[in-house]
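INPUT
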Amino acid sequence: MNIPDPVAVFRIEAAELFEQIESGLLDLTHRLNDKDQIDAVFRGLHTLKGSGAMFGFDALAAFTHHCETAFDRVRKGEKPATSELVAAVLAAQDHMRALVDRPTDDHGDIGEVLLARLQHAVEGDAPQPAAVQPIPVVAVAQTPKSGLNSWRIRFSLPVNSMVNGTNPLGLLDELRDLGEYKVLVNTSAIPSLDVLIPTDLHLSWDVTLTTDQPRSAIDDVFIFVLDDMQLDVETLTEVVEPVAAVQAPEPPPVATPVVAVAAPVQVPVAATPVAERETAVSNASDNRQAKAAENVRVPAERLDELMDRVGELVIAQSRLRQLASASMDIQLRSVSEEIERLSGELRDTMMVLRMVPVGSLFGRFRRLVHDLARETGKVIELVTEGETTEVDKTVIERLADPLVHLVRNSIDHGLETPEERRAAGKDEAGKVLLSARQAGGEVIITIKDDGRGINRDRVRAKAESSGLIQPGAVLSDQDLLQLIFAPGFSTAAQVTNLSGRGVGMDVVKKTVEALRGAIDVTSQAGEGSEVSLRIPLTLAIIDGLLVRVGTGRYVIPLSAVEECLELSLEEDLRSRGRSFISLRDSLVPFLRLRDLFQTGTKPDLHQKVVVISTGTERVGMVVDQIIGDHQTVIKSMSKLHHDVATFSGATILGDGSVALILDVAHLVAAGQQQEAQVRAAG
Amino acid sequence: MNEARQISETHRKVKMNWNEAEELEVLTFDLHGETFALEAILVQEILDLLPETIVPGAMPFVGSVINFRGKVIPLADIRLAFGMEAAETTIDSRIIVIELDLQGEPTLVGLRTDKVNEVTTLAKASSEAPPSVGMRWRPDYINCLVKRGGQFIILPNLQAIFSFRKEI
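OUTPUT
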C-alpha cells in the first residue's frame, strides 16, 4: 500500500472545493438570496481554509479567511448578498487557485487588491473589522441574546465519521464554549468486543446546555457535519425558535451502562414504543451507510490496471472456450460457459466504472460563459442538457479543450451584441445550448447558439482566397460548412483574443477524430448554428473487422468500414498501373496492403477490398481474407513503435496472438496521396 | 570508424549500479556465440518463445510484438544492433523481458536470446571499458567488458541501443 502525497491529496480536494464554491457563486448570480447556496459557498470556503492550514498552505488559509468572514456575515443576514460581492469572491477564488497551485511564488499584492475590493463589496466604505486571524475553527454568532436559555441537544454521528476526520470531542468542546453544559454519553450502540472495529464511532451524546447564545450558535457548531449526522435540539425553557434540523429520533438513552454525569436529565420526550423507534433508527442508519458508500475515490491508473486484467481474463476465457468446445467433458463445458458469462458481466461492469457524467465537463463552461459575457459585453444565457449522460473518463478529458473552443467560437462569432439582436427582433440575451445524449454506442454532444449563423459567402470567399478550394468550385452545403475545420481557416475579419486565430477548429476536428468521432455542422443564417460531436462511448474497446493480409491478421475499426467487395481478377489486372477501382461510378483509390506490408506472399485467389472512409474521403484496402468482426480491446504500442504510423494500436486475439489495428486516418491520407501522385503523373 | 569514435566521445556514460562491494548481480545469456549480461534487477521474466506478430514498417531491430501477459510489448533482437546475423531459433532460445526507461517512460521490452545461462555476480575489478579500436561493434553500445574464466562478458548499454536512431 503506497501512501499518497498529502499535498497532492489536498490539491485534489481543493479542486473539488473550488468547483463547489464556483458553482455556488454562479448560482448566486441568478438568485442572490438563495440561502442554500450561500451556505454551500461558506462551507466550501471554510473547509478550504481549514484543510489549507492543515497542509501548510498558510497564505491560502489567511486569504480564504477573509472571504469566509465576508460570507459568514451574509449568511447571518448582517449583510445582503450583492452581485458585487459575488464577483469579488469569484475573482478572489482565482487567486486562491493560484495560491494552491504555486504556494511558494510571490503573488505580489493581488491578494490585497482583491481583499480591498471584497471589503468594498461587503462594507461599502466602512473599515474592515478584523486583521488576518489565523484560523478560528468556527465562527461564533456575534449577536448575543439577553437571558439564558437551556437546550437539550442530542446528536450522533455516522459510524465512519472518525475515518473522515470528524472529531466529536471538538464538537463537544465548542458546545462547552457556548455556556454551562452537562454531557451524557450513550454507549448502548457499541457492539460486543469481537465485532468492534476500533475506528467506528458508536457513541451518541446528550448535552444539556445553558447559554445566552441563540439557537443558531448551536447549529453553527454542527454546520460541517450536519448533512450526515442526526441532531436533535430542544429547548428546555420556553420555545424560542422553531427546530430546523430534526431528523430521525435518537436511540433511547435509557440503557446506559456507563453514566458519566450523575445529574439526571429531565427530558420532555413524547413516549414512543421502543420497537418502533428502533426500526426508525435502523432505517436511518441504513440510509446513512448507503450514502457513505456512494463514492470511492480511485486513481485512474488502478482502473486501467483493472481494465487490463479484465482484458486478459476475456482472452483467457476465449481460449478456455475453444478447449471446452473441443472436449466431450460436460462438466468442463458447463464451467467454461459459466466463466464466459461471468467474464462478460465483469467486462460490462468494468466499462461502467470508467464512465463519468458529462456534467463534470459542462460545469466548467458556466464560468467560461460568465467571463466571456463580461469581456464581450454580450448577454449570454448558457443552457445545459443531459448532464447525466455518461462517457468514458479519458474521452471527457480529451474533449474539454475542443469544447472550450467551440463554445468560445459560438459566443465570439455566433452571438450578436445586444443591440444587433434587438435590431434583428431577437431576445437581448443570446442563448448557448450545451447538450449531451447517448445514441447507441455514441454520445452526441451539441453546441447550439441562436446567433447570426455561419455566413456561407464569407466562408467561400475566405476558402477561395486561402486556396482551400478552387474559385467557383461546386460544393455541397455540408462540404462548405466543413471548410471551417480546414487548417488555417478563420472567418473572423478581426482576430479577437477569444478565438479566431484560425488554429483552433482544425485542432478541434483532429482531436475529435483521434477519439474516433465525427463533427457535423448545421447553420441557418440569422437563426444560429449547431455543431454536433459524435463520440464513441469508450476508447478501451471497439468493434473491429478482422482481416488477413499474407500471414498476418489486422483489425480495421468497424466504424470506418463502408463496405467490403471482391476484387475481381480483371479489375486486379487492369488496376496494376493505376490502383483505382470504380465503385458505383466513382473512382476510389486503393492500397494493396500486401505490398505495403511487404508480406512476400502470393496473393489469395479471391482478394477482397475493404472500403474505409473518414467523412467524405474513401480508400479501399486490398486484403487476402475477411475473417469477421471482433470485439477489440485496444492496447497501445510502446514508444519503440511510435514511428510506425500505419497502426494506431494492437489487440490480443482469442488464441493469444497479437493483431495490429490499422490507423484509418493515416491510411486514407496515404491513399489520397497516392491518388494525387497518380494525377500529377497524368 | 571515425564516426564511431565521435559517437563514443559524445555519448552519455550510463552509470552502472555496482554495489558497495563493487559487485553487480547479472543474468548472462548467449547471442551468436558471445556471452552478454544484463543487470538482474532489470529482468522481469524469462519466457519460452511466443508467437510473434510482425510490425510492418518498424525497424528490423524491433520488428515484432508479443503478447506478454495481456500486454503488447516490442520484441527486440539486439543481434542486429551488434551487426550479427539473425539466427534460427533453437530449443534453447528464450525471451528475456526487461523494463527499460525510454524517454522517461518505463517500458517493457522482450529481448530475443539464443540461450539464457545463469544469474551470477561480476566484480568491478575485472571490468574494462570497451576498447575504442579493434572491435567490430559500436563502442557506445557497450557499457563495459568483464573478464571471467578466460572469456569476456559483454554488458550492453541498453539505453544507448534503445534510444535508437532510424539507421539501425
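end of record. Chain A touches chain B at residues 308-309, 311-312, 315, 552, 596-599, 635-641, 643-647, 650-652, 656-660 (CB under 8 Å).
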